[in-house]
Amino acid sequence: MIIGGRDGVWCRFYYKKKDYILNDEKELVIMVGSHNPIKVGAVRTVIERAVGAELVPNIDQVEVQAIEVASGVAAQPVGDEETLRGALSRARRALEANPQATWGVGIEGGILRLDEGVFTNAWCAIVDRLGNQAVGGGLLMPLPPAMVRDLDAGYELGDATDRLFEVKHSKQAGGALGHLSKDLSNRQHAYEEIFTFALVKFLNPVLYELKGAV
């Protein structure tokens, strides 16, 4: 499955900033390591905004694609370390899957067990072919006891959300955040935020001393 732009139309944008060498064609091809429409939509929304505002240096055109890859971690990651490892694994495998890709992006959601209770968490990773790597995390939200009991019983967070709110496929929609916040926010908004956090290195390649920055 390949996703580019809206309604299957490739996203293409043009601008002139030149302080980060991407490739000879100056085309940014992003491979998202998941077919989940919320993850792909989050990446697409942010990169369209960034490219449209001429914030990403040295790009003539950008294309967003998606491929399903293994996370390399448990179906329900626990803790920041495992969740971040899953995001990095998805990013690296997505990049490797397409020789034409410039960046691989991985987004992984998990849970945190703290003294204050059980919380959601999420990490995003971006990797490129020059050896640069950037990560951003967030989505720390407390979970109610009924969901925690389901997690303790072995359910994944998405399944626990579906059970509590009597819905289906919530992790491909608003997610636990959408239901618990009563749509004040949702899963895609949270993923847009952590993708943006990871993206800041590539928006400021000289400042972050990225390989390829000139």
Question: What would you note in describing this structure?
Answer:
The chain is of the alpha/beta class and 214 residues long. It has 6 helices and 5 strands, in the order βαβαβββαααα. It has helices at residues 37-52, 80-97, 145-152, 157-165, 175-180, 187-203; strands at 27-32, 61-66, 103-114, 117-128, 133-142. Strands 2-1-3-4-5 form a 5-stranded mixed β-sheet. A hairpin with a 4-residue loop joins strand 4 (117-128) and strand 5. Helix 1 crosses helix 6 (187-203) and helix 3 packs across helix 4. The protein is elongated and about 50 Å long. Mean pLDDT is 89; it is low at 1-18.
Key terms for this structure?
single chain; 214 residues; alpha/beta; five-stranded mixed beta sheet; 6 helices; 5 strands; 35% helix; 21% strand; elongated; disordered N terminus
What are the SSEs and their pairings?
Layout: E1 27-32, H1 37-52, E2 61-66, H2 80-97, E3 103-114, E4 117-128, E5 133-142, H3 145-152, H4 157-165, H5 175-180, H6 187-203
Parallel strand pairs: 1-2, 1-3
Antiparallel strand pairs: 3-4, 4-5
- Oligomeric assembly: single chain
Uncertain residue segments: 1-18
**Which range best describes the helical content: under 10%, 10-25%, 25-40%, 40-55%, 55-70% or over 70%?**
25-40%
Basic shape: elongated
| Side-by-side strand order of the widest sheet | 2-1-3-4-5
Helices, by number, come to 6
For the largest beta-sheet, the strand count, sense and barrel status come to: 5 strands, mixed
> How far is the N terminus from the C terminus?
35 Å
Strand content: 15-25%
- Average pLDDT over all residues: 89
Radius of gyration: 17 Å
Order of SSEs, N→C? Answer: EHEHEEEHHHH
Topology, number of strands: 5
Structural category is: alpha/beta
